[in-house]
Design a protein that fits this description.
mainly beta, 2 domains, three-stranded antiparallel sheet, two-stranded antiparallel ribbon, 1 helix, 7% helix
Length: 112
């Protein structure tokens, strides 16, 4: 199976479809997508060394980084351009912590 993400005019992922790898054209279904659905399609994969991250609806495709980037979870987080993952400005401690954007810190989750 191959997976393709459809992009809107701002390179935001609007849907992800699965295609057949046994396509007689050898293009893993890419031409079928163009011929039958139109739009702009970019192949994605669960393999992290291919475009960094699997495309999800709402993610953005960055052509320069050749990567799918998920929406930014918090204003204070920064993009690690090597992994194209968002990182907190403070490393997460060991244990059960959640991010508190108001305090820009990790807070321990109390166990019930």
């Amino acid at each position: 199976m191959s997976h393709f993400a459809e992009l809107d005019n701002s390179n935001k992922v609007i849907r992800v479809l699965v295609c057949d790898n046994n396509d007689p054209n050898g293009d893993e279904g890419y031409q079928w997508l163009l011929d039958n659905l139109g739009g702009t399609w970019v192949q994605t994969s669960y393999n992290a060394n291919f475009r960094k991250n699997f495309a999800i609806i709402g993610a953005t495709y960055d052509e320069q980084l050749e990567a799918f980037i998920s929406p930014k979870p918090y204003d204070s987080w920064v993009l690690d351009e090597d992994t194209c993952q968002w990182k907190a400005p403070i490393p997460k401690p060991e244990g059960n912590y959640i991010w508190n954007e108001d305090n820009v810190s990790w807070e321990l989750v109390e166990e019930a």
